[in-house]
User: What shape does this take?
Amino acid sequence: MGTPHTPPTLEIQANADESSSVQVWRRFFIFDVHFVSNLARLWHNRYLIFALTQRGVRARYKQSLIGIGWALITPLAMTAVFTYMYSALGLEGRKTFPCPPVLYLLFTLSFWNFLTRAITNGSTALVSNMDLVTKVYFPREVLPISSVLTNVVDLVFSFLLWAGVAAGYSYLRPGVAFSYPHAYPFLPHAGWLWLPVIFFFHLLLILGIVFITATLQVYFRDVGHLINLGLTLWLIITPVLYAIGAFSGGRYTTLININPMTGIIDGYRLAIISRASPWYTAPNWEHHVVGSVLFSVWIFLVGYSFFKHEEQYFADVV
Amino acid sequence: MERVLLEHVWKQYDRRYGSNRFRKLFASLMGRHPERNEFWALQDISFQLEEGESLGIIGPNGSGKTTLLRLLSGISRINRGHLLVRGTVSALIALGAGFHPELSGRENIYLNGSILGLKHRMIRKFFDDIVEFADIGEYIDSPVKRYSSGMFVRLGFAVAAQVRPDILLVDEVLAVGDARFQARCHERIAQLRESGTIIILVSHDLWAVRQSCQQGLYIDHGHIHTQGDIATVLAAYNKQIQQEALLRLPKVNESENSSDYCSCDLDFLDEEGQPVTEIPLGAPATLRLYYRCDEPIPSPTLVVNFMAHNGPCASILRSRKAGWQVEKLEGEGHLDVQIPNLRLNPGQYAVSVQIKDTSDRITLVKSRFRELFIKTPHLDWCYENCYYIPDARWSEPVPHHSETNHKTHFPPSSPGS
Assistant: This one.
């Protein structure tokens, strides 16, 4: 028996007045009472999320020669450019990077690229699937979620690339690799178990943002341009192209420390490169990992309830 | 227990901003008046359906039929009223929704099936049925962008046909595809209806609506015009279309009619010679053609057109074909055309007469359309898509015995069947 998405009973009692903007704003602080039932329905639609993610992955590399190779070429090229730039400018200091810059950049860029792609694709998920939104009924959050998950494949490949390069580097050039403060051969270790944990919060952060931007994109196409601008600015205050200890004190450090993405990137760095617990706090750094985790959960809850509230209007507005 | 219940449902749209209330807020802050663009796409719609019932929704373009289906499927929300749908809903609004052009037919079957709510396991089970129903053969592994539009829709329907909802919404999608495919679609809908699924069908194909539905809903400009039994609703719809056709057509012909030197008109007369607008099926009728020609028309041709309510010409009478010929038509007068047995399909017709020149090509003058209603004793009886009812006599059945030497018409029956 087929089980279409509509819940067994759909009952709508419309009020004569639209919900006022005051009520909409309240949703930023009071979480949706339907949160659990929404998640249950989302779980019921996991096949759909899987199918749409699969579609995204397959369609992305169809009719291209290199295919999934592009997932490796992009971070490699960016790493090469920035490594060259740093060595040319003489910024290649042991003080700023916890490991050779090549390995650090390849590592952080793979996570950062995942974020930018996921947010860019996820934000347009509703608008670019207009035919589905206006013609078929299913929980709409399936679209941004699967758009975000589509990019996980690229992340996995670029992370495996990093693992390969790092292992090769510490084998071929142990002198350089072991001259850094946290000097270990870059082979899989127990700290990698933190990876799915941090990734979970990384994903919540992205989804929370995407729920909001995808909704706004339905109403205003300007959001797409704003997102590109915002991502560029966000990159500057995230320790991706530099290490967390590169700036000491000052307003800029404050910006870096309140940035929720700092904790995520540094969490990955602590767990994988420095073999420390991601909850570890260096003496002069802020306690950003826990802050990032809390922020990610909050933005997800707010984004999701905002999205679910606006969902009913999508088909008529898009 | 009613499965579908609508009570005083209202739906508002905005011509300019859709329902974008943020844009509207901006517009009103800018001093514009966004509420001017608002209109009610559906107004005060109420109906209910029980298990196993089927509803045909008809109405002109833009009357709100598709909007209603979107509300029922949960895609769009209502502004006022109460809407209750018990059971799973599946909407055949756009076949092949979510098909990705780059992916193969096989991949798209899984994708589209998931979108329609089928589990992976179900799709795998029905995969061969789907491919067979869609009749796409070796194209199954080609990207769907290489498909013809017919194949695309067939594949979409084949997947959708595997969904077994409690309530099925069908919108115009069956209009594409060849006759064979359409027949299969209707067969599938009939199957679902027999198994207790509620069917809600939107179509301009009145024949299909008549076939598939017991109840009807005629919507016009967002209002319910008529609702109830499908025959009543179709009759009301046909009448409305007919009236609109009659209102529209004379205006065009008024100027031709009052051409300076010539005009013509017609009337139907019954057996007593009284002008009538209704004639029983098969009764003799007299068609009286009036003419006034200030200048003589040499050897003219007269043509009488019977237009069916939905547009096409149902029948035509040409004087030249009947061997009627006069040297010229001059002054004012009339002539009668006897029709011993008028056997048009019962219903309404718009009849006009034209005077053409000798060659039968150039129309010199055309009369107004006159309304003609072909009656039967039981008024609701009519066929949707035919124009002529032959006067047929049916014999008693004649048995074929082996000794009477009748050649058999049928192949020998196989032992299995």
